[in-house]
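Sanity check

After download, print the first record. It should look like this:
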Amino acid sequence: MQATRLGGLLPTLPALAGLFPGGGLRHGCVYTVPNSTALVMALLAAPSRDGAWCGVVGLPDFGIEAAAGLGIALDRLVQVPRPGDRWLAVTAALVDALPVVAVRPPAPARSADAARLAARLRQRGGVLLVAGPWTACEAELTIAARHCEGLGPGHGSLSGMSVTVVAAAGHGGGMTRKASVVLAGGGPHPSNDAAGLPHLPAGRSGAAWDEAGFLREGTG
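Expected structure tokens:
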């Protein structure tokens, strides 16, 4: 288990590639993902498929079934669901060994601790995904909007969902990128607000549609 050398990019799923300059995650950088464990999974999926080891710290809701369904290799996944007060030490140890690590801090890190971990990350050439706030990051990624189809007031079944993911530059550059994906029970289809944008295959139908359905991009 060795961290990838500094330089170049870690891959991302095709539907998310437009969120990042060069289409991938920059080695030595921190990305924050404050509102979606599912999006954290999506960002881990492509590096894992590409052969990378992944670490996950402080995310007890990180389901291995959903991870495996995305193509995340469970035999190259190190999980520490409840590190407690030692979350920072555990994260630093994994950053030393693995090319990509995801962590949900139980409380905001002190600026000095975050700076030391960032320096370690740059030295090792890894990528850190933080499911929460962080003092400095390459970009913050959020799920800004969901639109469900097939549901009425108190009736109907969920037949599809479109999701908008937003990446805002975290270094003062002011650039914001968006990616939209469309899900539908009978297969992907264009919509008025997402024409020409990448679509994800429909892996589920009816009431089974949820955010995890968005994560099935590229698996079929």
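If your output differs, re-run the checksum step. Summary of this record's structure: Strands lie at 9-11, 24-26, 29-32, 54-57, 77-80, 100-103, 127-130, 139-152, 155-169, 176-184.
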